[in-house]
Amino acid sequence: MRFLHTSDWHLGRSFHRVNLLAAQRRFIDHLVATVRERHVDAVLVAGDVYDRAVPPLAAVELFDDALHRLADLGVPTVMISGNHDSARRLGVGAGLIERAGIHLRTDPAGCATPVVLADDHGDVAFYGLPYLEPALVREALGADGTGHTAVLRAAMARVRADLATRPPGTRSVVLAHAFVTGGAPSDSERDITVGGVASVPAEVFDGVDYTALGHLHGCQAITERVRYSGSPLAYSFSEARHRKSMWLVDLGPGGAVTAERVDCPVPRPLARIRGRIEDLLADPGLARHEDAWVEATLTDPARPHEPMPRLTRRFPHLLSLVFDPERGPEDPLASYAQRLRGRTDRQIAEDFVAHVRGGRGPDEAERAVLGAALDAVRAAETESATAESPATRSPAAESPAIGSPATGSAGAGAVEAAPSSREVAR
């Protein structure tokens, strides 16, 4: 059986306020053409179909067009909700849509109810595990812990129990939306850390012929049978070196896996350049980036006069300007953002406790309280997103959740053409 593994469409997302709808439509065209030309038997979408719980109308229309075109080809599609999606909204009408061959899996309670397709070698059972927020699904799944590993183990136990009832030789595919240990993240994925631990071991999916993962935006193979397709478009400058693609997978008799990368259309290349402004304006080696979307980091000790218009004259698609002045490590003006770079919310909170208490950090009990508080905020945000309506959303909430986190490209100084405060927080 041949299937196409994709994920993280993030329909409705922008790139530093550049509207990507045309590029996303081009990707859908490419997806449909690949399905038709490569004789694909099933399409898998491993979550984050939309960029936010209440997507803009244009994104909903593009999603509707994609489903109609796939249904017209007669090719089954299995799709799960991700942490950016509203599971309830995405799952509306799932029972009716299923009659057209579009199988939406957004309810954790249905994780052990597969979509069963057949080829010349027998049945293939496709199990859809939507994004599982531990605080919301732990009790329903009977998980023996509070983190991602515990709830995914509980969901996979149900999958294996169902698979054991299937005819001998039935092959299995799982769709999941999670951060699996060994995966390389980028700046554009929303943090799903729970209890200080974001990742789950790949062994959670042992015994399955293929696991189609979503959440991380770089296409990568954790193992031969556990893979991320990545996002079809770049959504942050940290993805400048990504090769955007989908996995075209052939699942042979006995569960043999052969996978090929199918490249996605690139609307415009990305470039990150760094140096003093005069060097950036004069360096002939940077000519290749003049048509790219550019993030420029200026290292001048003092902020140059009108850097944005000066740089834009050479790099007309400059989208992000970061200031990281050359300073010695002992300089008291060294950026607070630099000191936070690469640290999790929990580590930052624990460091703050140590700072205000003269160097004495939190003890184990206090760490547990901090962890529980962070988890509760994240769970509440996830739960409220499913019930949030456009009328109750603030203007800031309507801003596209793109941009780098505070510990990322915001770097060491103010950023021109920077994301909103909510984007930075994400």
How would you characterize the overall build of this protein?
29% of the residues lie in helices and 21% in strands. With 426 residues, it is of the alpha/beta class. It has two domains: 2-263, Purple Acid Phosphatase, chain A, domain 2, CATH 3.60.21; 270-425, no CATH class. The strands form five sheets. Strands 6-5-4-1-15-16 form a six-stranded mixed sheet. Pfam families: Metallophos (PF00149), SbcD_C (PF12320).
Question: How would you summarize the topology of this molecule?
Answer:
Elements (H helix, E strand, L loop, with lengths): L1 E5 L7 E2 L2 E2 L1 H17 L4 E5 L10 H17 L3 E4 L6 H4 L3 H5 L3 E4 L9 E5 L2 E8 L4 H8 L6 H16 L7 E7 L1 E2 L18 E2 L9 E5 L5 E2 L4 E3 L16 E7 L5 E7 L6 E6 L1 H6 L10 E6 L8 H8 L3 E6 L12 H5 L4 H12 L7 H22 L29 E2 L4 H5 L1
Parallel strand pairs: 1-4, 4-5, 5-6, 8-9, 9-12, 10-11, 12-14, 17-18, 18-19
Antiparallel strand pairs: 1-15, 2-3, 7-8, 13-14, 15-16, 19-20
Tally the helices.
12
Distance between the termini: 38 Å
Percentage of residues assigned to helices: 25-40%
Structural class: alpha/beta
Report the count of strand segments.
20
State mean pLDDT (0 to 100 scale): 86
| Rg, Cα atoms, Å | 23 Å
Low-confidence spans: 389-426
What coarse outline follows from CA principal-axis ratios?
globular
CATH class of the largest domain: Alpha Beta
CATH fold-level topology of the largest domain: Purple Acid Phosphatase, chain A, domain 2
Features:
single chain, 426 residues, alpha/beta, Purple Acid Phosphatase, chain A, domain 2, 2 domains, six-stranded mixed sheet, globular, disordered C terminus, 3'-5' exonuclease activity
